[in-house]
Design a protein that fits this description.
Blueprint lengths: L13 H14 L8 H8 L3 E6 L2 E7 L5 H16 L6 H13 L2 H22 L20
Helix pairs in contact: 1-3, 2-5, 3-5
């Protein structure tokens, strides 16, 4: 008897499979949201804001929406933060810049926000994930590395 090959997604972590399943169960193909920011706000991963007189003050995250899905994205972001040196160059650079000026938990939630927007884009567009590229000083795209 021949060996059965597991599907491509089976090579990913359990956390990834769990998050993907919960995401599809919660939003389907993402048509309910026009932009990734709307999806991220629905999850409660966008900071509350109090602005007056041209001054902007960002508060904590709103914690509205699907708390289970939000927890999965935050835990996934923390896992990515632990292995930030193994990420693609664009994400690695973004994490290094943000980590140098923000608290670890703030960086984790910001990354969860970014991951949620990426997940929405993949679902809504029906395309494969393309890792972010690092732009050089002239604004030209560098190859991922």
């Amino acid at each position: 008897m021949g060996q059965i090959k597991p599907p491509k997604w089976a090579k990913t972590s359990c956390q990834t499979q769990l998050t993907a399943t919960a995401l599809i169960a919660a939003i389907g193909n993402g048509e309910a949201f026009r932009k990734g920011r709307e999806f991220s706000a629905w999850l409660g991963l966008v900071p509350r804001q109090h602005s007056t007189g041209g001054k902007q003050k960002l508060l904590g995250i709103s914690k509205r929406g699907n708390s289970y899905l939000r927890k999965l994205f935050v835990q996934g972001a923390r896992a990515v933060l632990q292995f930030r040196d193994k990420q693609c160059s664009g994400l690695r650079y973004w994490l290094a810049e943000l980590s140098s000026r923000s608290h670890y938990n703030v960086v984790g939630v910001a990354l969860a926000n970014k991951l949620a927007r990426m997940a929405w884009a993949v679902l809504a567009r029906g395309e494969a994930y393309r890792p972010p590229l690092l732009a050089d000083m002239n604004g030209l795209q560098m190859a991922p590395g």
